[in-house]
From TrEMBL:
Domain Mannose-1-phosphate guanyltransferase C-terminal: 72-140
Keyword Repeat: no
Listed name of the protein: UDP-N-acetylglucosamine pyrophosphorylase
PANTHER family noted in UniProt: N-ACETYLMURAMATE ALPHA-1-PHOSPHATE URIDYLYLTRANSFERASE (PTHR43584:SF8), NUCLEOTIDYL TRANSFERASE (PTHR43584)
Taxonomic source organism: Hominiventricola aquisgranensis
Lineage: Bacteria, Bacillati, Bacillota, Clostridia, Lachnospirales
SUPFAM superfamilies recorded: Trimeric LpxA-like enzymes
The entry's keywords: Acyltransferase, Transferase
Domain of life: Bacteria
Gene3D superfamilies for the chain: Hexapeptide repeat proteins
Amino acid sequence: MSKIMIKDLYNMNETIAAELFDGLTYPWEALPKIGEFIKKLGETLDPEEYDKVGADVWIAKSANVFPSAYVHGPAIIGKDAEVRHCAFIRGNAIVGEGAVVGNSTELKNVVLFNKVQVPHYNYVGDSILGYKAHMGAGSITSNVKSDKKLVKVHTPEGDIETGIKKFGAMIGDNVEVGCGSVLNPGTVIGRESNIYPLSSVRGVIPSRSIYKKQGEVATKHED
């Protein structure tokens, strides 16, 4: 079976949201739970380390949030994170420790693990990005199908029904997404894979792969 379970994609030691995934098998099962989880978790955060700055918004004292950024709750901005000029965080967002949310980047219903970078004109919606995942300039997650039907995850073994209408991408640890790429609804990218710039990606990309175009995916050689 394709390695698309939570344990296959993510290091749970690299997120404040590890308990969100307890009892779940696939990462997208967490998407409907993010908002309520943030509200619950936020109330447990140490006030010596986090400021509550609005309705269900907690920002680490060590984070750098630019004055022009907009953060709507529920949201948690982690320690040493950077939220840059005109970033738009629409709610239901966890920004991990040391993560970067860049100029004009928009987040909605997401979990960014520690050290994630979405630094330049990105849209990330209804998605989970693993430790040190990086999205190049202008790359986005497309989170709704054009026919508005429920999203399926297309695997080599067959489709998995998610029962979810809004589902962007599940991106594993240390994934590099090239500039200008579109991750279509229901995309799953395994750990340590690279996506070529200007790609249109759908389905499951195995871990340690190089995605060049649809139907042309190479396997990385061991060092």
